[in-house]
Amino acid sequence: MVSTAPELSERPRPVTRDAQTITRIVRVNHAGEFGAIRIYSAQLWVARHFVPDCCPALEDMLQDERNHCAIFRAAMPPRNSRPCRIMQLWSCGGWVLGFLTACLGRNGIWACTAAVEAAVHRHLDDQLHFLATRDPELHRVILSIRAEELAHLRHAEDRLREKRASLRLLRDVISVLTDMLIWLSTWGDSMHMARALKAAGTGSI
Ligand SMILES: [Fe+2]
Ligand SMILES: [Fe+2]
């Protein structure tokens, strides 16, 4: 588990455009972690009734996401960032996504986890390149969080033993839905962030 880092506020001050991108990074990440909390909460609610063997892993992931969310929330004030204005969208969208995929059973749960965690991992990878020299403390924290997200992804992929076309399609659909939710709930911040990362020659989006 990643610990909160009080030294997050002790960081070099980046130039204005970079500072704006860093502000967006923590806002988008905070929204994403909040969405993950809602997804796993809904999945746990269903899994407790129908697929209880999935619960221990989902509970561990939920605790990790709560910790990540708190870390990004703590990183906001020193970076002039605030939570997204329409977090409610993430709240509802994440819960519905988690609920519907959990209703499909184990494969639905792990296909959703794999799709969401892969999207998260892709975003964090792009951010790490950008932050390495611009915000070393945030870089260090995201590096630790990425290791836990990767563990979530590996866990889900290990359980998707049946690589049927329907599961691949489900993963693709969830990936698109996740990107749409991130874009909508951050009011385009994620798109601006991706452009800035690309302009800095670090992004793959
Ligand atoms: Fe997370
Ligand atoms: Fe995760």
From TrEMBL:
<dbReference type="GO" id="GO:0008682">
    <property type="term" value="F:3-demethoxyubiquinol 3-hydroxylase activity"/>
</dbReference>
<keyword id="KW-0830">Ubiquinone</keyword>
<keyword id="KW-0479">Metal-binding</keyword>
<keyword id="KW-0831">Ubiquinone biosynthesis</keyword>
<keyword id="KW-0408">Iron</keyword>
<dbReference type="GO" id="GO:0046872">
    <property type="term" value="F:metal ion binding"/>
</dbReference>
<dbReference type="GO" id="GO:0006744">
    <property type="term" value="P:ubiquinone biosynthetic process"/>
</dbReference>
<dbReference type="InterPro" id="IPR009078">
    <property type="entry name" value="Ferritin-like_SF"/>
</dbReference>
<keyword id="KW-0560">Oxidoreductase</keyword>
<protein>
    <submittedName>
        <fullName>Ubiquinone biosynthesis protein UbiB</fullName>
    </submittedName>
</protein>
<keyword id="KW-0503">Monooxygenase</keyword>
<keyword id="KW-0472">Membrane</keyword>
<dbReference type="InterPro" id="IPR011566">
    <property type="entry name" value="Ubq_synth_Coq7"/>
</dbReference>
<comment type="pathway">
    <text>Cofactor biosynthesis; ubiquinone biosynthesis.</text>
</comment>
<dbReference type="Pfam" id="PF03232">
    <property type="entry name" value="COQ7"/>
</dbReference>
